[in-house]
Amino acid sequence: xxxxxxxxxxxxxxxxxxxxxxxxxxxxxxxxxxxxxxxxxxxxxxxxxxxxxxxxxxxxxxxxxxxxxxxxxxxxxxxxxxxxxxxxxxxxxxxxxxxxxxxxxxxxxxxxxxxxxxxxxxxxxxxxxxxxxxxxxxxxxxxxxxxxxxxxxxxxxxxxxxxxxxxxxxxxxxxxxxxxxxxxxxxxxxxxxxxxxxxxxxxxxxxxxxxxxxxxxxxxxxxxxxxxxxxxxxxxxxxxxxxxxxxxxxxxxxxxxxxxxxxxxxxxxxxxxxxxxxxxxxxxxxxxxxxxxxxxxxxxxxxxxxxxxxxxxxxxxxxxxxxxxxxxxxxxxxxxxxxxxxxxxxxxxxxxxxxxxxxxxxxxxxxxxxxxxxxxxxxxxxxxxxxxxxxxxxxxxxxxxxxxxxxxxxxxxxxxxxxxxxxxxxxxxxxxxxxxxxxxxxxxxxxxxxxxxxxxxxxxxxxxxxxxxxxxxxxxxxxxxxxxxxxxxxxxxxxxxxxxxxxxxxxxxxxxxxxxxxxxxxxxxxxxxxxxxxxxxxxxxxxxxxxxxxxxxxxxxxxxxxxxxxxxxxxxxxxxxxxxxxxxxxxxxxxxxxxxxxxxxxxxxxxxxxxxxxxxxxxxxxxxxxxxxxxxxxxxxxxxxxxxxxxxxxxxxxxxxxxxxxxxxxxxxxxxxxxxxxxxxxxxxxxxxxxxxxxxxxxxxxxxxxxxxxxxxxxxxxxxxx
Length: 722
What we know:
mainly alpha
């Protein structure tokens, strides 16, 4: 090929590339200055005068006046229209622009036979995008294609990013699909953001479409692109689908990372497939992905949720052997669960380990410790835990302060909590609505509902008014008390503040109706809630079940249980507990067993209340050995039997004359840290008076020790109180 021809060929290729590059530049870079707007060349002084007048009016934001100048031109060209659009969009009053007027000018221009060029579209597209008129911008981009022009990659990418920023995923997908038609592939960060947001919104199919469509184009190379899809599938109970996807990617040579495998571990455990989860853990190591602290914390959290606390503690040792030290989050998860089970010795051991490793407790540690103690009713220990946290230099933020207010209010010291709050505010403390609502709840617990309502006016609410939780706190107390006048006051105040009631508020009203015998009104309100689009929570249904069962309307309770079964989180363990307790009270043991089997089929684990009801049922039937077995199951599952459960078994043993078993049970009771209460002592005293213990000196000595210890405790408490 001659050199001259080769050079000419390259020149043509370069010119083609250059033209394409220029057409592919965004509005702002293509038209940054007025000089970029090509003006109509004419020697007509009148035309030039009208051009200048149109420009001045457009720059001032006067579209109508500018249009009069344009329409006065004898032959306005596309460049004149472009100048109008450009200067108007650059005007100081562009925030007042009505884009419908501009679109009308655009269509009028076409109807008069003046056809738009690339500059027309670039000017309008840039203006619409920069001012947030994104749907109009996409319409114009499609119109641009219809007229034989190609919108730039940059302009479409900006529209996509803006839609993603606004969280509008349907329109984001429309822009994405339009870009694909033009063979434009968004940048990897934009695609990752799109996939992530789609997954969070539950649009897993759309996310997979985006990923799969661009995987072959080489646009997505990292695990960060597909990990959100794996996590979404696993959270949605589709762990095997996620596993199949990972294997498919593995065959295609796509890189996996620790987060990919952690998603599968999470998913399989969530579905109760522990064996599969641990197989994935082994496969991680084979694949060269070392499990990190997040992976192990996921396992620890699930073990704790299932009450398998000893296995969770053992997992800490395995982490150390694998060279992965637990962090504060891992320890917080375990500490919280240990407190729920009253494992004080193990808690002390873990706190010492944390101290040796110089892991400082945070506000979540404090919440785990005090929250666990409060749930067990150990208010004094919770307060001591809080004081310990402060003494070791823990960060005293608003969360810790709110916990302390909660401790005081649970101890019937709401006035003290309020006084402390005021004192702290004088020193710069900024309370949240949670702070105020905690104190309101304390006053309501102490039956000071009038004072609680008065506090509405005195509190300096962060959002300038109480929230729906504030109203629900007082409303709940008023409904439980049956105080119709207070309920009306709350309603009036709510209307004045403009706060809308939610499903919790309506549940309070249902509780009020059902408590005071207005079952039909409660049922009518439930139906009205559903018709109005409210989704009753499991608490709503449990409230109705509880009141129906207490009014001995078991048949109606069963109808509700069947009709609304699998609505949201209903039924849960509490739902079954309510019905089981009622059935045992009625002596319907066969239906109780059937309900228990149904509970297991729902993958629900019995809690302390469930076991308490079943133990009571066994004792009523005289099946003390079964009651003891149930107590043992509780301990195996990490549940601490309450003193009332022990009292139930003790009473049954005394009735049956099983004296040696009593001795064993009392020893277990003391070993497990469950102190006898007034009822326990009453049972033991009755046995002593009847002389049943004379034949068993060992038991007599133990009983004497227990009763003496209880008397000393009562004397100490009495002295403290006085």
